[in-house]
Specification:
Two copies of one chain form a homodimer. The first copy, chain A, is of the alpha+beta class. In chain A, 49% of the residues lie in helices and 22% in strands. Chains A and B meet through α3 and α5 of A and α3 and α5 of B. The first copy, chain A, binds a DNA duplex through α9. Chains A, B: Residues 16-120 form the Cyclic nucleotide-binding domain.
Chain lengths: 197, 197
DNA sequence: TAAAAGTCTTAAACTAGTTCATTTTTTTTC
DNA sequence: GAAAAAAAATGAACTAGTTTAAGACTTTTA
């Protein structure tokens, strides 16, 4: 069976952890929705109810919150082959505190809450897929939050650049500052210092 | 069927997400190991291979890493009804970067890696249990790391005290500082300031 | 393609948090 | 229950990162 590109990509992502039969693949794909967002458009805004969890086929999005003073804090940049959304809101059906905004024209596949529940009923193997996916995310989150706290902003920038060399060149310095957790001014100083080294 | 206290506690924790038959309960309990650690003793040290994942029946433990300068950073305090361990090392069979040290005499139940794998084979319902457990941990980790970065140390202390009022009174100020991510001296200043308010 | 809007740079004055050193208080140990 | 060890408090000098402001450079939009 030949699948369109977006479907081949998501099946490939899932095949990392579980094997599906042809029938299961088709069933799964039927539960997904195609979504496109233009650059600067929002996929989600604070106060919304997270209707989908998303898989990114193409593009780049930033996931962020605003603090009391309205300053953004970016928790992740989501690019090709990443999963994103607000799992807390998706699960609890409470409003999200997040904004998700496309920094490039992007294409995604979404699974709705109703279809997510249906998925576990129809193809219980997906419990295993998500168990492993969440386990791995948890490990990398723990590493990140553990690692981050004792490093200086300069060290965090150097690590980010090493870990995500492709992403650094796709985002603005301002957004990078909001991810690293410093002001754009200080980000500018760090970058020119690191480049001089 | 009547279970000993530690078994009743862990079954209760599991019953939050899945229902087990009597037979499954007995099978599950047979896969667990009783563990005791005295105050100041290590459950795990950096360089060890994480042999178990732990459920805490009684006591309090701190999970921490040391940075290059040997300064501790505490990532969690684990008390009654919590799960702890190093999942990354447990899964990948690589050495752990963590120390887990009892701050009180503690009793735990452990599941070994071999039995964890066996568990999913014998009682597939546990895929669901762990999927939900990891999903929830992920949500609270994301919230914590998101929340933490933009707050001052004083605000982080106030939040911690509000969220874990019982834990605050069981740990030293020094350990609290290592959790908040500041020096014990500055922690001391913050506490006396907050008490004066 | 010109104007407007947004991003980046630089610099001076400021603040949250660190470091180091000393004393007091509390806890542990024999 | 005395001695030793660890934790907590206090203060002065220091540093990483913020704030504010202004000008230069780039990207977007009409």
């Amino acid at each position: 069976m030949i699948y369109k590109e977006s479907h081949a990509l998501i099946l490939n992502n899932i095949a990392r952890f579980i094997d599906l039969t042809e029938l299961e693949k088709q069933k799964y794909l039927s539960l997904l929705t195609d979504i496109k967002v233009k650059k600067k458009a929002f996929l989600m805004q604070a106060g919304d109810f997270a209707k989908y969890e998303y898989f990114i086929i193409k593009g780049c999005l930033k996931v962020y919150t605003l603090d009391e003073d309205g300053a953004p804090y970016i928790s992740m940049f989501a690019v090709e082959d990443y999963w994103t959304g607000d799992m807390a809101s998706f699960m609890t059906k409470e409003p999200t505190p997040y904004f998700i905004k496309a920094t490039e024209h992007s294409e995604l596949l979404g699974i709705s809450r109703a279809n997510y529940d249906l998925l576990f009923q129809e193809i219980p193997k997906f419990e295993r897929f998500y168990r492993i996916l969440y386990q791995r995310s948890l490990v990398s989150y723990i590493r990140r939050s553990n690692h981050g706290i004792s490093l200086t902003a300069e060290q965090r920038y150097i690590e980010f650049k090493k870990k995500y060399p492709k992403i650094v060149n796709r985002i603005t310095q301002k957004d990078l500052a909001a991810y690293i957790g410093i002001t754009p001014e200080f980000m500018s100083k760090i970058i020119s210092k690191v480049n001089r080294m």
